[in-house]
Amino acid sequence: MAEAAAAHAHDDHGHDDHHHDDHDLPFIEKYVFSTDHKVIGIQYGISSLIFLAIGFFLMLVMRWSIAYPEDQLPAFARFILGFGGVSEFLNEGKVTGTLYNMFGAMHGTIMVFLGVVPLGFAAFGNYVTPLQIGAPDMAFPRLNMWSFWLFLIGGVMMLASFFLPTGAAQVGWTNYSPLATTAQIESGTFWGIFWTGQTQWLLSMVFIISSSLLGAVNFITTIINLRAKGLTWMRLPFFVWAMLVTGFLLLLAFPPLEVAAIMQLMDRLGGSSFFLPTGLATDGGQILDISGGGSPLLYQHLFWFLGHPEVYVLLLPAIAIVGEIIPNNTRKPLWGYKSMVYAVLVLGFLSFIVWAHHMYLTGMGNVVSTFFQTTTVLISIPSVILLTCLMISLWGGSIRFTVPMLFATAFLPMFGFGGLTGLPLAFNLIDLHLHDTYYVIGHFHYVVAPGSLFGLFAGIYYWYPKATGRMMSTKLAHLHFWPTLICMNGIFLPMFVQGMAGFHRRWYDGGMAFESTTAEYMGLNEVMSGFAFAMAIAQVPFIINFFWSIKNGKKVESDNPWDATTLEWATPTPPPHGNFLEEPVCYRDPYEYSVPGMKSDFLMQTTHPDDVEIDEDFAAEDTTAKA
User: What is the per-residue pLDDT for 175?
Assistant: First the structure.
């Protein structure tokens, strides 16, 4: 019944008006305000890569300040900052504490909410998910278009806040109250406070979160209702399972943060005190004229109720991509497929009951802290199951070290190391000492940078031929991969040493003000910054490769250049509007590689049982063995 319903929904969707006469659409409707999931996926991908580049530049400026606090920024950096409207926050060409705080807040915001999440979930999810389930498009194409434009509006507003007289937001990417609520309110007027970086950050987040919620509803509906005939739940590629769980995480976790942003906006503009306690004083000792009675801790709870599921929103798309690439390049099925499905479901559930481990310093009691310590340790179990299944999938495989496989295999130890270093932080006794140090920065970035980003790079190299009909240059890809792998570790590994030595994450001078206690490890600042600058150079081959290959890359010789098994490789290349030339029917599991007795070493999900070619030599040997 479920298959029949899915097929019926598929047929109904396939006759929707927006699928007809696509070639007659004007350029602006076909490529700008498009309702085609593939175009929207590419729009998300290009936009998020640009945001990632901007966020990366902010990090480079911060790394310069940490390594060389008494030196002027290089001329090209000063020029870019002047163009970006923030040169007034420099002091004779040197980074000030105000500028460092601003860039720290915006780096985290841009990388998480405008970079990694939209690239992993929105870009890859939009492009690949409908193809993998045999759907002609997303369930709600116009809603999909609105989702992208809300995201882009929020992102542009976020960047535009740099040009305001106050500059952008300056109190961290978490935007904690009461500091965030009372920052940049010197004008005292409604419009004066409205046109500040802090207020624009909140407004931008409302747009970005609304975009994610629309996307989440769309993904969930599409996966449940638009699966191809025969594509039962346990025939879904693991990528689709991960997108489904990610959609639920966004749908359930983002509303609390959107509510928190609106409440903080009311505190700033409307005179309310949701997060402002009674008797709050300014730096000058003056008591603020507010109603009071609010709770600063309430904001932290609302933020981190989103914050920890958000970690898995960052991770799951990367794990899902690696889960597609490894079986394809080992030429064997994904080991423990069902275990991975159940693990990702448990991971999604547990992610909602671990948020307060970010708040040990708020003074919670032993009972509450023990509960969150326990759930934090428990959530490592499904993560270990996922990582173990992916690593065992390598065992005994005939591994092809293609470029996507290089990034996928590098992802495994990087993600494992990031998770392992997080375990000590699960315990409040340890976290009390390491909180807000570079240890936390190193842990989080090992999960997100060489972790998530390596998975996302793998996905770009893997599906690029399907999207463009051309392969990316292998030579340029190797020039991208190897320096990036080395530099990632060179940046983040020393952070654990500095963190355990007590280096604080918000020292804009790298600890120079506390040189009597930090001198032994100050030299690591220059080492890490040097690797950061080198990694910036390492991204140049990728940028050249990405755009050069669109017109000059080697043309693919078939619609399935990787000899893969899932449905997206059964479409023409690039896929047309509506995706499939005829309605796809699924006959088998997603990863049927190297099936004994088959002539080919892979069977696509669309291969009819009558079309399977038997290896006659194997059949003869099998008959002889039985005799």
Answer: 93
